[in-house]
């Protein structure tokens, strides 16, 4: 673990989502230096399934040695954000450091505020065990995750940097290695257990694509004896599966070990499967011969957009356009596979 140096004493840190999880871990790390923490989060009343409110977090921050200002903030509400900033300035004079989720404007803001405010993005190398991961990942997912402490330590490293350190996209493990941290087992929920790569980082084996023997001809789909012959299909979905099949390899199958079933609505829809358990892999129309590990339901248009990189599965899932049943960890693996196939689709 990275030791505290006291460098943040008297600094004011504005943290969204600080009532629990990663946000609270960063807050507690800074509080140990004696920092002022603005807790900007939605939870003011106890949730039946999720521990922590802005007020309980404030008590923990005070106990760790910091000062706290709990503010009810929904980051989608500009007025609530402005109000929280005004309260922070009124109570602490100003705020010097901010942590916001999903930093999509890092480069633009870094350039705009160069010399005045440093803007950086921080991302985990592996899955981090939080309440959200517990809900989405299912039983046993925690053994494949690291603790929130690794993000808190990485954020602390960034906080210590000068304002000239800006416009960077940082992976937690990388910056901690630069600080001399060598033992990362201390951050693991289950030391020694294989870790799940983060949802948005490309950590899967590189795909070695196979060129079709003849251009324009559709490759014959492997049939399982237990399956009835597939119906003739044509269109964008069939074309997508054709390219997916050409991209499969034993290495991908070995790294994934999952069967995916797709329930597609709309033209060229129906039930399709992607078998990444059988030797060499297989795709086809109809149900897989073995039970699917993950079932994904969506429109045919969204399916094609996802595999071609025009629609992020995370966005589709959060907006309700994609429904997932089964093993969420294996669903995450499929997104990484999609990212590597985008160039061919």
UniProtKB/TrEMBL annotation:
SUPFAM superfamilies: NAD(P)-binding Rossmann-fold domains, SCP-like. Residues 213-237 are annotated as: Disordered. The keyword Mitochondrion applies. It comes from the Eukaryota. Belongs to the short-chain dehydrogenases/reductases (SDR) family. Has apparently no steroid dehydrogenase activity. Controls bile acid (BA) and lipid metabolism in response to nutritional cues. This is Hydroxysteroid dehydrogenase-like protein 2. The gene is HSDL2.
């Amino acid at each position: 673990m990275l030791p505290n140096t006291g460098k943040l004493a008297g600094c004011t840190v504005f943290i969204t989502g600080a009532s629990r999880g990663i946000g609270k871990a960063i807050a507690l790390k800074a509080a140990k230096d004696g920092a002022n923490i603005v807790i900007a989060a939605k939870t003011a009343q106890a949730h039946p399934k999720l521990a922590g409110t802005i007020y309980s977090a404030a008590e923990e921050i005070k106990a760790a040695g910091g000062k706290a200002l709990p503010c009810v903030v929904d980051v989608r509400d500009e007025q609530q954000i402005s109000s929280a900033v005004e309260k922070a300035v009124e109570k602490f004079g100003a705020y010097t450091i901010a942590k916001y989720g999903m930093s999509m404007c890092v480069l633009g803001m870094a350039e705009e505020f160069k010399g005045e405010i440093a803007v950086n993005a921080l991302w985990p190398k592996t899955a981090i065990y939080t309440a959200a991961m517990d809900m989405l990942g299912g039983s046993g997912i925690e053994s494949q995750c690291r603790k929130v402490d690794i993000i808190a330590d990485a954020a602390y490293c960034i906080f210590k940097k000068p304002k000239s350190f800006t416009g960077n996209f940082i992976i937690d493990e990388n910056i901690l290695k630069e600080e001399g941290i060598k033992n990362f087992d201390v951050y693991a929920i289950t030391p020694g257990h294989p870790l799940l790569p983060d949802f948005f980082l490309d950590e899967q084996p590189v795909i070695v694509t196979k060129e079709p023997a003849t251009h324009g001809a559709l490759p014959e789909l492997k049939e399982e004896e237990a399956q009835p012959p597939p119906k003739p299909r044509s269109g964008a979905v069939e074309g997508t599966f054709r390219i997916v099949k050409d991209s499969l390899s034993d290495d991908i199958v070995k790294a994934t070990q999952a069967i995916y079933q797709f329930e597609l609505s709309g033209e060229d829809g129906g039930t399709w499967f992607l078998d990444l358990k059988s030797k060499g892999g297989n795709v086809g129309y109809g149900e897989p011969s073995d039970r699917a590990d993950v079932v994904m339901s969506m429109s045919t248009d969204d399916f094609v957009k996802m595999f071609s990189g025009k629609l992020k599965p995370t966005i589709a899932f959060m907006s309700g356009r994609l429904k997932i049943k089964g093993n969420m960890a294996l669903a995450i693996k499929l997104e990484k596979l999609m990212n590597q196939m985008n160039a061919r689709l």
